[in-house]
Amino acid sequence: MVFISVSATAPVNSPLSSPKLSINDLYAALVYKARYPKDFVAPIESSSVIHEHADGLTRKVMFKAGTMGKLEKQEVEEVVDFYPPTRVDFHVPATGMRVSNIISYASEDTENEEELYLTFSFDFPHPEITDREKQKQEAEEILERHRKGSAKVVPHTIEIARQMKAEGRL
């Protein structure tokens, strides 16, 4: 099995964005996303937290039909780990899929919240690809599909977080 990895990064606070998000605001939104992902991830039909612990939670997520590479609805169990105030990791034990949501500062200024960035890093398992070199074209097509999808989710998450702050929910 081959894992295909992609990452996407977006600036959090552009000069015209309002309200501005602090690292604590953004982290709170990511923790909320872990508990209530439906507003953030369009293919999710429903979810429920089945276990909470000090550093995260375990949840069941029902994906809509036609997503996750399946024609029918797909239920998965995800383990979510919190690393305050900069990271939330998602892991699907059944498949090995991993997603990291990472908040960072610009490298030259580690205290300026105007210079926050949000990165999502995805490791997608692809059991249908057993040899990356022999199946190079197929792997590249899948990689491109994942790149296009990941490029959309980071700005969307930032906008939902900004909306939550404007509504006083952060």
TrEMBL record:
It holds the Pfam family AtaL. This is Uncharacterized protein. It comes from Talaromyces proteolyticus. SUPFAM superfamilies: Bet v1-like. InterPro entries: AtaL (IPR015075), START-like_dom_sf (IPR023393).
